[in-house]
Amino acid sequence: MKTTEIAIVGGGPGGMCAALVAANQGAKVTLFDSAKILGGQLIKQTHRFFGSEKEHAGTRGIQICAMLEGEIRKNENIDLHLDATVVAAYENKVIAYEEGDKYEKMACKKIIVAAGASEKMLAFMNNDLPGVYGAGAVQTLMNVHGVIPGQKVLMIGSGNIGLIVSYQLMQAGVKVEAIIEGAPAIGGYKVHASKVRRMGVPILTSHTILEAYGTECVEGAIICRLDEKWDPVPGTEKRIDVDVICLSVGLSPLTELLWQVGCKMKYIPSLGGYVPARDENLETTVSGFYVAGDASGVEEASAAMIEGKIAGLAAAASLGYDRHYGTLRKEYLDDIWVLRSGPVGEKIRQGLQILAE
Questions:
Q1: What are phi and psi of 160, to 5 degrees?
Q2: Which secondary-structure segment (H or E) carries 211?
Q3: How far apart are CA 119 and CA 267, in angstroms?
Q4: What is the 3 state secondary structure string of 114-168?
Q5: Residue 194: which residues within 8 A CB-CB, separation 6 or more?
Q6: Is 222 in contact with 210 (CB distance < 8 Å)?
Q7: Confidence of residue 344 (pLDDT cuts 50, 70, 90)
Q8: Does pTM top 0.90 for this prediction?
Q9: Which ranges in the chain belong to alpha helices (H)?
C-alpha cells in the first residue's frame, strides 16, 4: 500500500493552499483532483477578486490559479495526482482512489477534505430539456473552452455567481433577457448588479420560473411573480423567448467522504446544507480528518484559500512540522475573521455559530 503524510482531496483554491502551507512546513503531501486541470473553480473565474491584498484583491481567479499551480509543481514535497478520483475514505485514514485504469489504496497520517461543492438544481416543468444549464457549467463552457451556450439567456438567481456569469455572457456577445430572483432583494454585491443593470438587463426580484418550453430543446420559459409567502401570484405569468435557462441557485458541499468516516454532520442552510462539525483548526470530530473550502460551508474562493492554509498548517503541526506555528495560525485566523466581518459575512457567521452550538 502506498503511503503519505498528508493526503488532500481536491485541487481547488482550498486544497492548493492547504498543500502549499503543509509542504512549506516540511510535510510530505499528496494532492488529488478528479479533473485533468488543477484549480477547481479558479480555472473559470475571469473576474477580479475583492478583499485585501492578502486575498489577491484586484487579481483574476485564473491568474491566482496559475500562480498557485506554479508553486505546487515546483514544490518537491507535493506529489500531484490529476484525473484521480478519491472514491472512499476509512476511519483508519486509508483512502481508495481511481487513477487511469488503476484502483489504488493509500495509508495517510492526516487527510484534508477540500472537495468543493456541487450545483443545486431547481424543480420546474421540463427542467430536463437541453439548454438548461448550471451557472458553473456555463462558466466552464465560455471561460475554459471558449464556447457560448446559446444566444438568449434567462438567468435564475441574483447571487454573485448569477450576476457575474450574466455579465460574462454579455461580454461574449450573448443577450441576457432577464435575471429573476425568488427573494425580495438581490443576493449579490451591488457593484455586480449595477454593472448588468447599466447594460439594460432587468433584475426581477420576487419572481420564479414555472416551466421551460420547447420540443427538442429550450425555446423559452414562463416566469411569474411570487407573493410574500413565496407562492405564485395568479395572472402574473409571462413568457420569455430564450434558448438557454441558466440556474444559479446555490451550491451543496461535497461531504461524502466525511459521511463515510462518521464525522458529525449538521444541516445548516446558510452554509449550503450538511457540513461537518470541526474545531478552530478545521479538524473534524474524527481525529486526523480536516476540512477546508466549500466542503466546510459554501463561501467565496478567498475564504476557501484561508481555510486551506489553516487546515494545512494544523495538519502539518500535528505531525511535528510546527515552524512559526503560533504566528502563522494567528495570522490566518485573523485573516478569516476580517474576511467574514461586516454585513457581507453575517450569514456565514450565523451559520458557524449554529454549527458550534
A1: -60, -40
A2: strand 207-213
A3: 17
A4: CCCEEECCCCCECCCCCCEEEHHHHHHHHHHCCCCCCCEEEEECCCHHHHHHHHH
A5: none
A6: yes
A7: confident
A8: yes
A9: 13-25, 61-73, 135-139, 160-171, 190-198, 256-260, 301-318, 325-339, 346-356
Which cell is 311 given? 487546515
In tens, the pLDDT along 221-279 reads 999 999 999 999 999 999 999 999 999 999 999 999 999 999 999 999 999 999 999 99
CATH 3.50.50.60 corresponds to the domain 121-247: yes
Domain layout of the chain by residue ranges:
2-118+251-356, 121-247
**Identity (one letter) of the amino acid at 3?**
T
Phi, psi of 77 (to 5 degrees): -85, 0
Per-residue model confidence as pLDDT tens digits over 96-147 = 999 999 999 999 999 999 999 999 999 999 999 999 999 999 999 999 999 9
Confidence tier at 56 by pLDDT (50, 70, 90): confident
Cβ-contact 107, 193 below 8 angstroms? no
CATH topology for the 2-118+251-356 domain: FAD/NAD(P)-binding domain (3.50.50)
Average per-residue pLDDT in the chain? 95
| Per-residue confidence band for 51, with pLDDT thresholds at 50, 70 and 90 | low
Residue 52 confidence (pLDDT) above 80: no
Phi and psi at 287, nearest 5°, equal: -55, 135
DSSP string, 25-51: HT--EEEEESSSSTTGGGGG--SBP-S
pLDDT-based confidence at 354, cuts 50/70/90?
Answer: very high
Residue at 323: amino acid letter: R
* Residue 85 φ/ψ, nearest 5 degrees: -105, 120
Do 2-118+251-356 and 121-247 share a fold? yes
Which set of grid coordinates corresponds to residue 221?
A: 420559459
